[in-house]
């Protein structure tokens, strides 16, 4: 068993680390405060090839493996989880979904713009009454021969306001339950497509989350993804890969907070010595480091499964479940290590603690991961 990264992996990790420190860190506190989307930074990430890392090179993608992607996600998330969720949704939900299941025309028209960061993508599954229970979609897409007419509302859509291209899941035939669901490519500006107000969030405040409303939106038939009735499986398969990216995001948030706590423990003095010399702090750091390392192994295993044609539904769900818990636990402890300074914005860890919570909610709550895991281990 080889745990060593290749030279190429190391280079990608270093490039993401440099970008995070040089381009994301300045201004991250202000963007969080003002709920400001990292527009310039995302544009640069696109130019550097981070927006379509795994997509096919013929459509502008990097043709990289999932291991490269999670390495980049971890590094970006150590500094700015708001930027990294934009990267994650664009890469693993939108680009991967289109690259894997889209037609040649769809890829030429849409994927080429998404992989370069010229345009940003959003994945629209959740609804006011269909978050975890994804089959209960109320949005409808009625077949009118050469086009569909879409009506409904989507909620909590990451990149909702800043995206240009939206993958929308809707019911085409409610009687067929999940087999009557389809996925469609919509563009901002289509008549009847409205973006609702921005949500005021606890964490990942730099990313923009909106509800979307569709009032008789006419979508050409060629914008349906896959065979008729493929939409639910499309969403599930895409989310399975997406969960590996969010697990890497959770890992990065935890690792970022841990590194800050460790550095702080070496400079802060109490009772006549640096606080790292107190066992109360040293043991916290030991626990944090151990759980992060365990989460990293799980994230890498899930990425490896995906790259090697193994089933990654289970390993991805386990990685997300575990890494998101580690992100919560470690960020809370990192604030504690910082004491009063941990509670103020300039020390960054309070933001990471707020950001960590979303990793237990989006792309399937922790409870959903437990459904996926328990069904898988109890299947035989
Ligand atoms: N791959 C392929 N097919 C899958 C699959 C997978 N991973 N999981 C399920 N399916 C298929 C099943 O095989 C079944 O198909 P057949 O009947 O044809 O065999 C069909 O889908 C229905 O499966 P289930 O009976 O298991 O469906 P269910 O209703 O019990 O739901 C669930 C399963 C796992 C709970 C699912 O509803 C789920 O994942 N819910 C959470 C949804 C979610 O993650 N929402 C997050 C929103 S997106 C987001 O957050 C993005 C963002 O902006 C950051």
Question: Would you mind describing this structure in some detail?
Answer:
There is one protein chain. It is built from 11 helices and 10 strands. The chain is α+β, with helices and mostly antiparallel strands and 380 residues long. The strands form 3 sheets. A 4-stranded mixed beta sheet has the order 1-4-5-8. Helix 4 runs antiparallel to helix 5, helix 5 runs antiparallel to helix 7 and helix 9 runs antiparallel to helix 10. The two termini are 28 Å apart. The mean pLDDT is 97. Bound molecules: acetoacetyl-coenzyme A.
In terms of topology, how is this protein built?
Elements: H1 7-24, H2 28-34, H3 39-47, H4 66-79, H5 81-101, H6 104-115, E1 121-124, E2 140-143, E3 147-158, E4 165-171, E5 181-187, E6 193-198, E7 209-220, E8 224-225, H7 231-267, E9 269-270, E10 273-274, H8 279-307, H9 313-338, H10 349-358, H11 366-377
Parallel strand pairs: 1-4
Antiparallel strand pairs: 2-3, 3-7, 4-5, 5-8, 6-7, 9-10
Helix pairs in contact: 1-4, 4-5, 4-7, 5-6, 5-7, 7-8, 7-9, 7-10, 8-9, 9-10, 9-11
This protein binds acetoacetyl-coenzyme A.
The site of acetoacetyl-coenzyme A (CAA) has 23 residues, from strand 3, helix 7 and helix 11.
Brief overview:
With 380 residues, the protein is an alpha+beta fold. The protein has eleven helices and ten strands.
The profile of the biggest β sheet is: 4 strands, mixed
Q: Low-confidence spans: pLDDT under 50, at least 5 residues? A: none
Helical content (DSSP H or I, runs of 4+): 40-55%
Please work out how many helical segments DSSP would assign. 11
Total number of strands: 10
Structural Rg: 21 Å
Structural class: alpha+beta
Strand portion, in percent?
15-25%
Ligand list: acetoacetyl-coenzyme A
N- to C-terminal distance? 28 Å
Could you give the order of strands across the largest sheet? 1-4-5-8
- H and E string: HHHHHHEEEEEEEEHEEHHHH
Shape: globular
Task: Return the average pLDDT rounded to an integer.
Answer: 97
């Amino acid at each position: 068993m080889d745990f060593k990264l290749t030279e190429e992996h190391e280079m990608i990790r270093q490039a993401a680390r440099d970008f995070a420190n040089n381009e994301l860190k300045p201004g991250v506190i202000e963007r969080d405060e003002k709920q400001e989307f990292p527009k310039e930074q995302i544009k640069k990430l696109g130019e550097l090839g981070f927006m379509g890392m795994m997509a096919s090179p013929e459509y502008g993608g990097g043709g990289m493996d999932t291991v490269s992607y999670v390495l980049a996600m971890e590094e970006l998330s150590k500094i700015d989880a708001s930027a990294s969720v934009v990267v994650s949704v664009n890469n693993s939900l939108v680009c991967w979904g289109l690259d894997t299941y889209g037609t040649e025309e769809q890829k030429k028209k849409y994927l080429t713009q998404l992989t370069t960061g010229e345009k940003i993508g959003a994945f629209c599954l959740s609804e006011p009454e269909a978050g975890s229970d994804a089959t209960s979609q109320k949005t409808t897409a009625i077949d009118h021969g050469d086009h569909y007419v879409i009506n409904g509302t989507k909620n909590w859509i990451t990149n909702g306001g800043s995206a240009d291209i939206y993958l929308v899941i809707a019911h085409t035939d409610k009687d067929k339950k999940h087999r009557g669901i389809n996925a469609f490519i919509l563009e901002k500006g289509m008549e009847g497509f409205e973006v609702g107000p921005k949500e005021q969030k606890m964490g990942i405040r730099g990313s923009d989350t909106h509800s979307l409303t569709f009032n008789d939106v006419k979508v050409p038939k060629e914008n349906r993804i896959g065979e008729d009735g493929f939409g639910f499986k499309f969403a599930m398969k895409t989310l399975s890969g997406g969960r590996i990216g969010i697990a890497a995001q959770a890992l990065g948030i935890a690792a970022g907070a841990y590194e800050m706590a460790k550095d702080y423990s070496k400079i802060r003095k109490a009772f006549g010595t640096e606080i790292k010399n107190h066992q109360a702090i040293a043991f916290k750091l030991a626990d944090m480091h151990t759980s992060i390392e365990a989460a990293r192994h799980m994230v890498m295993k899930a990425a490896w499964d995906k790259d090697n044609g193994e089933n990654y539904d289970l390993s991805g769900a386990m990685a997300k479940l575990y890494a998101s818990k580690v992100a919560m636990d470690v960020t809370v402890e990192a604030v504690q290590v910082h004491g009063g300074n941990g509670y103020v914005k300039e020390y960054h860890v309070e933001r990471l603690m707020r950001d960590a919570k979303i990793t237990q909610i989006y792309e399937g709550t922790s409870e959903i991961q437990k459904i996926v895991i328990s069904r898988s281990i109890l299947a035989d």
